[in-house]
Amino acid sequence: MFCTTCGKEIQNGSAFCPECGAAQQRVNMPVSNLGGYVNSSNQSAIQKVPYNTMCIVGLVVSCISLILNFWGLVGIAGTILSVIGLTNCTHRNENGKALAVIGIIIGVLSIFYGLIAVLSLSM
Questions:
Q1: Is residue 1 within 8 Å of residue 12, measured between CB atoms?
Q2: Which of 15, 75, 85, 112 could join 100 in a cystine, given CB atoms 3.0 to 4.6 angstroms apart?
C-alpha cells in the first residue's frame, strides 16, 4: 500500500503514513490466489509529488549567471535560491533535489568566475 499524500510505501491497513503523517483511507483490497499479493487494480491512484518551484528558479538563475554574471552577483542569487529550494524539498518531501544541487554547483562556479574577473580587472 502507498501513501495517498507522499507516495511512500506503507504497511497495509495503516491509518496514518509514518513518513508524512497523513491520514489514509481504508480500502478493503481482495487478495489474489498468487501467494497472497494484493491485487493492484483495486489500489487507489498514487498522486505524483510536485517539483519544488524554488529549485527550478534557482537552477534557471544559476544558468543565467553563466551569461550575465555581474561580478558574481547573479551566481550568488542563483546559489541562494537553490539552497532554499533544497531545504524546502527536504522538509516538504518534494521532487527537485537534483535540480537544486545542480543550481548550487553552477552558481558557485559562476561566483568564482565573477571573483576571477574582478581580481583580473583590479590588477
A1: yes
A2: 85
Closest CA to 64 of 103, 98, 121: 103
Q: Are 54 and 65 in contact (CB under 8 A)?
A: no
Do residues 81 and 102 make contact, with C-beta atoms less than 8 angstroms apart?
A: no
User: Distance from CA of residue 100 to its chain's centroid?
Assistant: 7
pLDDT digits (tens, 9 = 90+) for 12-35: 877 888 888 788 876 555 545 545
φ, ψ of residue 87 in degrees (nearest 5): -70, -35
Classify the phi-psi angles of 32: left when phi > 0, otherwise alpha if psi is within -120 to 50, otherwise beta: beta
Q: Which amino acid is at 15?
A: A
Residue 103: closest CA among 53, 51, 63, 47: 63
d(CA 4, CA 29): 15
